[in-house]
Design goal:
- The structure is a single chain.
- This protein is mostly helical.
- It has one domain: Winged helix-like DNA-binding domain superfamily/Winged helix DNA-binding domain (Arc Repressor Mutant, subunit A, Orthogonal Bundle), CATH 1.10.10.10.
- Helices cover 51% and strands 5% of the residues.
- A two-stranded antiparallel sheet has the order 1-2.
- A hairpin with a 5-residue loop joins strand 1 and strand 2.
Length: 146
Amino acid sequence: MFFTKTCNYGIQAMIYLALMEKGKYVSIKIISEELSMSVHFLTKILQPLTAAGLLTSYKGPNGGVLLAKDSNKISLYDVVAVLDKPEKFTSCMMGLKHCGTGKPCPFHEEWAPIRDKMHSECVSTTLADLAVKARTDEYRYKEELM
């Protein structure tokens, strides 16, 4: 798994919100129930996304969270950079501190192009793109997400 569990859950929640009616707050409890996640864990995941300006939250009986920007203005990289840190796309797969082109680890030549491709895809893919795919019948993920 390339992303941490925290990041995977955050991505799922953000796609879920991208599928919702614009401007309507969604309860974290509802999101957690729909996605079969712990409400406490999901709350902790959504806090840094709110602090980073990707979500807006509102307390109260009609409160919840919503995307702070249009889903086509939030990239997958934006979410990953908050929850898994941007170093994911520059660090050594084996966790070696001095790994690089000058002093490559045994896996460097195989990992670097994959890592670079993942970075490129995450930067170019928006929540809107993922929401469109989640809506289509050809993706099993739709049933898991909704």
